[in-house]
Amino acid sequence: MAKQSMIKPPLVLAVVCAVCCGALAFANSITKDKIAASEAQAIQESLKQLPDAGTFEEVTEFKKADNEKAKATALYVDENNQSAVLVTADGYNKGGLQVIVGIDAEGGVTGISFVSVTETPGLGTKVQTNPELLVDYFKGLSDTKSINNVDNITGATYSSKGMKSAVNCAIDTFTVNKEEGVLK
Predict the structure, then answer these.
(1) Which one, 27, 47, 74, 141, has least CB within 10 Å?
(2) Are residues 38 and 72 in the same domain?
């Protein structure tokens, strides 16, 4: 009797876990295409928000210039030779900033648009909701020193540093691909 009472609870728990895993796998298979389409649409909308944005096409083979806090995930170019780098950066939250950095043919930042921000509401989200405090200062910059010298937003230091890392990653990715002949 004692052995049966010791085996039954773990067995029931295992069955419950298996059923839950199956349900989650089923839900994922149904929603993954919709989620991917939604993400692709958000990226396209963000590309359109860049100043003087043309019709961007993704560069499928490019070199990434990731840094400690930011990773380039896509590179786009339009008919006006404006580049756009999709970057995911760590702010207060890991991967909390997903931005598109527009870069002109000479390597200067033309603008920044946000795909998603999962930073602390009211603090870290200031990088998006109050562009005049940080993001607007990146326009025209093309080197790490200038980007790093932009003042952080008070109370949003991690998010500000994440934005600087994202812009530096985008500029470095642009530069490496320009030097390699991937970009004109």
Answers:
(1) 27
(2) no
Structure tokens at 66: 């990731």
- Structural domain span for residue 13: 1-48
For residue 128, pLDDT over 60 is answered with: yes
* DSSP bridge pairs for 84: 76, 102
Mean per-residue pLDDT of the chain: 91
Question: Does the structure show a pLDDT above 70 at 2?
Answer: no
Distance of CA 59 to the CA centre of its chain: 17
Choose the weakest-confidence range: 33-37, 64-68, 76-80: 33-37
Closest CA to 110 of 50, 167, 161, 54: 50
In terms of domains, do 126 and 90 share one? yes
